[in-house]
Amino acid sequence: MIEKIILITLILACIFTKNKPMVLASIIVLIFSFINNDNIIKFSRKYFLETGLCFLMIWMLIPLIDKNKESILDVKNYLNLNGFVSIACGIFVAIIASKGLNFLTGNVSVLGGVILGSIIGVAFLGGIPVGPMIASGISFEIIAMIKYFVEK
């Protein structure tokens, strides 16, 4: 019962903060909680992460075929500070994320902490629980620091 109250509270909070993906996810999990079927939970745990990652990868690869955008295949676009730092951060975050995923598996305290932190960050602070966005954010911060120290 406490799980349903938490989910309803989360739904209301996310409606208030206008976080549509979290509202949808919370509603789906709330529906799952009323169905109360172990097979749904097993299926969700087994396939939803990979399915979500697949959709994320599709989103990331779409610029390859988007004729209206500047080509991401043009190497000259990466021969600058933004390009170098972003590539390095992308590599770094991909490696860290793979280690983090392995660390999460079977580690309840870490999994619970990451879930709680992600929910708080997404629902109340406008965050997005997505690895490439983390890489972009890290890139932004590093570039801003480099520019700050170079321009001083």
UniProtKB/TrEMBL annotation:
Kindly state one GO CC term assigned in the UniProt record.
plasma membrane
Q: Where in the cell is it found?
A: Cell membrane
Residues that span the membrane, as ranges = 6-35, 47-65, 77-97, 104-124
Q: Does the keyword Protease apply?
A: no
- UniProt keyword Cytoplasm, yes or no: no
Listed InterPro entries: UPF0756_TM
Q: Which domain of life is it from?
A: Bacteria
Membrane topology term reads: Multi-pass membrane protein
| Main subcellular localisation | membrane
Per UniProt, the keywords (alphabetical) are:
Cell membrane, Membrane, Transmembrane, Transmembrane helix
Task: Tell me which positions the record assigns to the signal sequence.
Answer: none
Family as reported in the entry's similarity comment? Belongs to the UPF0756 family.
Q: Which HAMAP family match?
A: UPF0756
> Per its record, how is this protein called by name?
UPF0756 membrane protein CLOACE_22290
The record lists the organism as Clostridium acetireducens DSM 10703
